[in-house]
Write the structure tokens for this entry.
Amino acid sequence: GQGVKIGANCYVGPNVSLGENAIIYPNVTILDESTIGKNTVIWPGAVVRERCHIGNNCIIHPNATIGADGFGFRPCAERGLVKIPQIGNVVIGNNVEIGANSNVDRGKFSSTVIGDGCKIDNLVQIGHNSQLGKFCIMAGHSGLAGSVTLGNGVIIGGSASIKDHLTLGDGVMVGAGSGVAADVEAGKTVLGYPAVEARDALKQWAAIKRLIK
């Protein structure tokens, strides 16, 4: 595209498409058949693995990795654990920001999807085949296991963790440090480990405090 800027020591693989005014800072790796949208900025050290797609007006901060292998293994009597090939990709929408040292794993067979307008903090893990709706927020050190589905406008506090194959509905809020082990209905706020509705969690904590006294 017109106005593209590529810094020193970058690697841009075969059949990569860079949109107009994209800025690729030094030491970035973009592997084969990936696409980078218009006005997207990729900061030094970031890696975009093969066949991944990043939309327009995105920011990928230093050392983020888009499209690393998903964490998939199966037991094997002869070899202990055998790696399951991860042949999907990552699709990132428009106006998305991915923080430094964060990772979005590629899907096992299909795509891991980050919806338009999502904001991902530093040191966040998004597991393979997860699907994020629009305008989700994930604070630092939080993580999604594989195949998690987030609705639109979900907010996940720092260091919270979400079990695999769960669905969090639109507008769900997860308190910092919480561990979500079951689906959460739209509009709910959950806290604790394991996470329960916020009102119930506060009642539990108050009861424990009284017992301690």
